[in-house]
Amino acid sequence: MEEGFWQTRWQRDQIGFHLNVVNPGLETYWPRLEVPKGSKVFVPLCGKSVDLCWLVDQGYTVLGIELIEKAVTDFFVEQNLTPVITQKGPFTCYTAGAITILWGDFFNLTADDLVDYHAFYDRAALIALPEDLRKQYAQHLSAIVPKPCKGLLLTMDYPQHQMKGPPFAVPPEQVEQLLGESFSVECTEERDILEEEWRFKAVGITRMFDYVYCVRCRSLAN
């Protein structure tokens, strides 16, 4: 999980991927999943996303996992929350109310850690991983989420040779290749965002699209 790279990014505050507002894709398309209020939602590689708070406000219990401790501690400071800190196997658990964030490596999670978490939200996990780790991520996610399970996945696509990443380009056909065996994948939005993403346009990106997917375990979709 290239911990050194992300440690440097967070220490230098090079976190342009972080949004200080709730992701509009989450607000718009989460209701389509029809996740019952009171359900538990898993958020991989959550950073310090305010999306966690939005999910709680909708009536959910949230479990995030994050590799970088600074991201975890920054979240609770910025949300004026005082977490209870405990140890659970390889993870340090920070809990405040309906939000728990595990500080540790996503690949150390097991199915036992996600018992009763029948929904997930991936806004920044898949696109944060280089190509060689994406397949491992998809396989591990499929292995540890309960069946049935459903989730919302946000990705982007652009000519990868025009920028090193992250965020990395993950085209629709790759999403299907990665998740299609275990999940049905429904693209609910494809949006041209180049004009509003001036930072990327400034470094020479000539095409950039955002995608939102509703994904459901095959056992749920059938």
Structure characteristics:
alpha/beta; 26% strand; 9 strands; 222 residues; single chain; nine-stranded mixed β-sheet; globular; Rossmann fold; 8 helices
Overall average pLDDT:
91
Given helix and strand content, the structural type is: alpha/beta
Number of helices: 8
Number of strands: 9
Number of domains: 1
CATH class: Alpha Beta
CATH architecture: 3-Layer(aba) Sandwich
Helix content: 25-40%
User: Mind summarizing the main beta sheet?
Assistant: 9 strands, mixed
Sheet with the most strands: spatial strand order: 3-4-5-2-1-6-7-9-8
> Could you state the CATH homologous superfamily?
Vaccinia Virus protein VP39
Could you name the CATH topology? Rossmann fold
- Report how far the terminal alpha carbons are from each other: 34 Å
Q: How would you explain this protein's 3D organization?
A:
The chain is of the alpha/beta class. The chain has a single domain, classed as 3-Layer(aba) Sandwich (Rossmann fold), CATH 3.40.50.150. It is built from 8 helices and 9 strands. A 9-stranded mixed beta sheet has the order 3-4-5-2-1-6-7-9-8, with helices on both faces. Strand 1, helix 3 and strand 2 form a beta-alpha-beta unit. The longest helix is centred in the middle third of the chain and has 14 residues.
Structure summary:
The protein is α/β, with parallel strands linked by helices. 28% of the residues lie in helices and 26% in strands.
Task: Give the secondary structure arrangement, pairings included.
Blueprint: H1 3-11, H2 24-29, E1 40-44, H3 51-57, E2 61-66, H4 69-78, E3 84-88, E4 91-96, E5 99-103, E6 119-122, H5 131-144, E7 150-157, H6 172-179, E8 183-192, H7 198-202, E9 209-217, H8 218-221
Parallel strand pairs: 1-2, 1-6, 2-5, 6-7
Antiparallel strand pairs: 3-4, 4-5, 7-9, 8-9
